[in-house]
Amino acid sequence: MVEARITVNGKSTPISPAAPHTTVLDFLRERGFTGSKEGCAEGECGACSIMVARPGVEQPTDWVAVNACLVPVAALDGQEIVTAEGLGTLDATGAPTELHPVQREMAVRGGSQCGYCTPGFICSMASEYYRPGRCPSAAAVVAETAADSAAAVADSAAAEPHSHDGEHGPNGFDLHALSGNLCRCTGYRPIRDAAFALGAPDTDDPFARRREQAAPAPVATEYTRDGRTFRRPASLADAVGLLRERPDAVLVAGSTDWGVEVNIRARRAEYAIAIDRLPELRELRVESEHIDIGAAVPLTEIERRLDGRVPLLAELFPQFASRLIRNNATLGGNLGTGSPIGDSPPALLALGASVVLASVDGEREVDLADYFTGYRQSVRRPDELIRSVRIPLPLAPVTAFHKIAKRRFDDISSVAVAFALELEDGTVRAARIGLGGVAATPIRARDTEAALVGQPWSTDTVERAAGVLQAEGTPMSDHRASAEYRAAMLGQSLRKLYAQTTEAVLS
Description:
It is globular and about 75 Å long. The protein has helices at about 25-30, 100-110, 120-130, 150-160, 190-195, 205-210, 235-245, 260-265, 300-305, 310-315, 325, 330-335, 345-350, 445-450, 460-470, 485-505, and strands spanning about 5-10, 10-15, 50-55, 60-65, 80, 90, 95-100, 220-225, 230, 250, 270-275, 285, 290-295, 355-360, 360-365, 370-375, 375-380, 385-390, 400-405, 415-425, 425-435, 445. The chain has 4 domains: about 5-135 and about 175-210, Ubiquitin-like (UB roll) (Roll); about 220-275, Uridine Diphospho-n-acetylenolpyruvylglucosamine Reductase, domain 2 (2-Layer Sandwich); about 280-390, Uridine Diphospho-n-acetylenolpyruvylglucosamine Reductase, domain 3 (2-Layer Sandwich); about 400-505, Enolase-like, domain 1 (2-Layer Sandwich), CATH 3.30.390. Helix 2 packs across helix 5 and helix 15 (about 460-470) packs antiparallel against helix 16. By secondary structure, the chain is α+β, with helices and mostly antiparallel strands.
């Protein structure tokens, strides 16, 4: 077996002697790359952000920002990463000689104070800087000599006809790229100014040129240290074969859940199987009767490849954690954990989705409404893995996803409700409603669906059905919300949907 190695800032580095559960963050810091910091160890602060070269959606390679605190370093065997230290121009000895445009803008616009969070912001911002189509021409470059940042942004808007708002700059920069990065010092305005001041990468920018070359292919890995093993099989057949031999193995995809278990609860896996790069689990196909989404396709990639094809998912994705998390998180992982407060299950339940389970015995399809059997339990056998999520077509024309949480973005939901309705001549012809956070598992609101179907879509019907919806599930009280609040929000969510559909007709 070839020695496990990772390319860090252009230099190939052996992973040994790191333990299989060692995070990329700890691996980097132990080797002197101390720009990445540990703030929360849960993927919620972004201080550890790094860039990874991955197969692109619109080009050979995309630079993708991820939380280094969550990813086991063995999962990046054969891969290529860049830290904040590697972004600037370096001399032959590796010493920095010139700042990267992102670093320069952050410095001159006051985007860094204590500096703890700055390297993470830099990597997340650089990932967005290199996003294809963000800034199509150099005309959007903001004059670096402008004395006032507001005037600089105005100059940029005049130079490039980008539509922009509070969350999108005139240079095409999407501030959601920084939604997983926290800062306690600057108040964010200088960071936003730095982001909105970035122009297009220069033609000789090495990271821009790198996008035109293929990203590193996945490497079959068997890495063992101190009695613990990390395996990356080469194919789905190999993976399910390993699962049959080791049904106790931990399956690792985006590691956004398992990484927290490793860091916060000190969980250690004797045997881990990485499935995030299996070609069979990375497919996304739109067919005549259904859409198949591979269980290991990252959420960001699903969002870009579907490009609004499934409006309910398009509404869900911006509310699902942060961009840093979505760059690694997968639908398979979100369903595999069996969490009752995962954001995707309610939406997938409303869409009537099913899961395709694979083992050495073959594949079987299970309706998602029948998949969950108890708290973090499902019908999936220990020797099975989720191959794909299947969404039937055609889609319901009226959909909505309502997430009730203490923060608008990057928060765990207290209640999540997804609707998919078919209305015809003012009557509800079909209804599917998925709920999260109100029972031991994600559930369908069957009684409410029955109360709606065949009834006029009217205030009276909605009020009666809202009362039914408030009684669905078995909500509990915890530090996020009381049971009474959760029940009230269920009813209010249906009223909100009715108001939204009425406003759409009136407009």
